[in-house]
Design goal:
The complex is a heterodimer of chains A (108) and B (120). With 108 residues, chain A is mainly β. Chain A has no helices and eleven strands. The radius of gyration of chain A is 13 Å and the shape is globular. Chain B is 0% helix and 51% strand. Classes of the chains: A mainly beta (108), B mainly beta (120).
Chain lengths: 108, 120
C-alpha cells in the first residue's frame, strides 16, 4: 500500500495569502496524483489531476506540482471560499487507490 | 448537468446487510468507471470499490473483499453496493463517485453521500 502523508495538518492563513500544501508518498507515484477540496458537509471536489492539470472549472489560483514522492498544491491568493480540507490521492498503485490524511486550511 | 445521488444508508446491526444505490444522470453512464469512497465520522477518505463501465471488472479494498459487492445497471444508469456482514468499522458516509475517464483513476463528480451506521 502506498501511504500518502500530508503536511501540515492545519494551515492558518488570512484571505489573500499564499497557501502551500504538501503531500509525500511512501514510494514513487510518478505523476499520478490528484488533489481534492472538501468543505464541511459537502462532497469532495476534484481540483488537480496527474500532479499539475487543473480539472474543469477550477480557478487558476490553484496549481499543483511535483513528481515521484513529493507534491505540492499551491493556492496563490486565498479567497474566502478556499478555506476547507484538502486531500491528495494517488492512482499509481491502481486499483489500490489511497488518499492522504488531509490538510485543513483555516482562517487565521 | 452531471448528477449522482446516493440512497439506501441507515442504521444496521453488526452482521447485518444493506444495499446502497446511486442514480446517475447527465452523462453516458456506461462510458465511465464508477467508484464507492467512504469517510468515517471526522476522518479522511477511503477508497472502497470500483467497477468499469461495462461492469466487467470489479475491485475492492482488502477489508471489504468478500463482504461487499459492487454492481451496476447501465440501462438504469445506476450503481449499487451490496454490503454484508457489516462491522462497526464500516460506519461512514458512503460516496458514489464518477471517474473522470473510462478508468477508475480520479473522480470528477461525487454525490452528497449516504450515512451507514453499524451499531447495536
Amino acid at each position: 500500500e502506498i501511504v500518502l502523508t500530508q503536511s501540515p495538518a492545519t494551515l492558518s492563513l488570512s484571505p489573500g495569502e499564499r497557501a502551500t500544501l504538501s503531500c509525500r508518498a511512501s514510494q514513487s507515484v510518478n505523476k499520478y496524483l490528484a488533489w481534492y477540496q472538501q468543505k464541511p458537509g459537502q462532497a469532495p471536489r476534484l481540483l488537480i489531476f496527474d500532479a499539475s492539470n487543473r480539472a474543469t472549472g477550477i480557478p487558476a489560483r490553484f496549481s499543483g506540482s511535483g513528481s515521484g514522492t513529493d507534491f505540492t498544491l499551491t493556492i496563490s491568493s486565498l479567497e474566502p471560499e478556499d478555506f476547507a480540507v484538502y486531500y491528495c490521492q494517488q492512482r499509481s498503485n491502481w486499483p489500490w487507490l489511497t488518499f492522504g490524511g488531509g490538510t485543513k486550511v483555516e482562517i487565521k | 448537468e452531471v448528477q449522482v445521488l446516493e440512497s439506501g444508508g441507515g442504521l444496521v446491526q453488526p452482521g447485518g446487510s444493506l444495499r446502497l444505490s446511486c442514480a446517475a444522470s447527465g452523462f453516458t453512464f456506461s462510458g465511465y468507471a464508477m467508484t464507492w469512497v467512504r469517510q468515517a465520522p471526522g476522518k479522511g477518505l477511503e477508497w472502497v470499490s470500483s467497477i468499469f463501465g461495462s461492469g466487467g471488472g470489479t475491485y475492492y479494498e482488502d477489508s471489504v473483499k468478500g463482504r461487499f459487492t459492487i454492481s451496476r445497471d447501465n440501462s438504469k444508469s445506476s450503481l449499487y453496493l451490496q454490503m454484508n456482514s457489516l462491522r462497526a468499522e464500516d460506519t461512514a458516509v458512503y460516496y458514489c463517485a464518477k471517474s473522470s475517464s473510462s478508468w477508475p483513476y480520479y473522480f470528477d463528480y461525487w454525490g452528497q453521500g449516504t450515512l451507514v451506521t453499524v451499531s447495536s
